[in-house]
Write a structure and sequence with these properties.
This protein has one domain (about 5-30, about 40-160). Helix content is about 80%, strand content about 5%. It contains six helices and two strands, in the order αββααααα. It has helices at about 5-30, 50-75, 80-105, 105-110, 120-130, 135-170, and strands at about 35, 40-45. A hairpin with a 6-residue loop joins β1 (about 35) and β2 (about 40-45). The relative contact order is 0.20. InterPro entries: CASP_dom, CASPL.
Length: about 170
C-alpha cells in the first residue's frame, strides 16, 4: 500500500465516522426530554431554539458528509464539489456544537419549562437545574460532545484527503 492509498483510506474512515457521529449526535439530542418529579414541569430539546438548530444542523451535516463520501469514493464530480460539502459539513458541526456548549449552562435562565414557578426557577439558576434534570443535561452534553468529535473527524478527513491528493501529484 502506498502513502497515497493509506492517506485515502484514513480519509474514507473518518468520512464514514462523520456520518455515524452526526446521526448519533442528532438522535441523542432529539431524545433529550425529561419530566420533572414533584410537578415541576417538563423540559424538551424542542423548547430551545439552539437545540432545534443543533438537530437540523447535524442531520444536514450527515447528508452533506454522506454525499461527500460517495463522491470521493466514486470520483463522480470535480474536486471542488467535495471540498464545498466538506466546508459546509465542518461549519454546521462546529456551529452546532458551539451553540449547545454555549447555551447548556444557561438553560435555567431560558426557563422553557412548563409549570415551573419562580421559586423553583431561582434555585435552578444556581446549579440545581441539572440536579433535577440530570438525564436531560446528560443528553445535551453528550450530543454536543459527539458533535465536536464529528467536527474534528471532518477536519482530519479533509487534511488526509488533501495530503493524498498532493502526494499523488509529486
Amino acid at each position: 500500500m502506498t502513502e497515497v492509498d493509506a492517506a485515502r483510506a484514513v480519509s474514507l474512515f473518518f468520512r464514514i465516522a462523520v456520518v455515524g457521529l452526526s446521526v448519533a449526535a442528532a438522535v441523542v439530542m432529539a431524545t433529550a426530554n425529561q419530566v420533572f418529579p414533584f410537578n415541576y414541569g417538563a423540559v424538551s430539546y424542542t423548547k430551545y431554539s439552539a437545540f432545534v438548530y443543533f438537530v437540523v444542523a447535524t442531520v444536514v451535516s450527515a447528508v452533506c458528509s454522506a454525499a461527500a463520501l460517495y463522491l470521493s469514493v466514486f470520483k463522480a464530480t470535480p474536486h471542488w464539489v467535495v471540498t464545498l460539502l466538506d466546508v459546509v459539513t465542518m461549519g454546521l458541526l462546529f456551529s452546532a456544537a458551539g451553540a449547545v456548549f454555549a447555551v447548556r449552562s444557561m438553560l435555567p435562565l431560558y426557563l422553557g419549562v412548563e409549570g415551573a414557578d419562580v421559586d423553583v426557577a431561582g434555585r435552578w439558576v444556581n446549579g440545581g437545574f441539572c440536579q433535577v434534570a440530570g438525564a436531560f443535561c446528560w443528553r445535551v452534553t453528550t450530543s454536543a460532545t459527539i458533535c465536536a468529535f464529528a467536527a474534528a473527524a471532518v477536519a482530519v478527513a479533509v487534511l488526509t484527503k488533501d495530503d493524498a491528493r498532493h502526494r499523488g501529484k509529486h
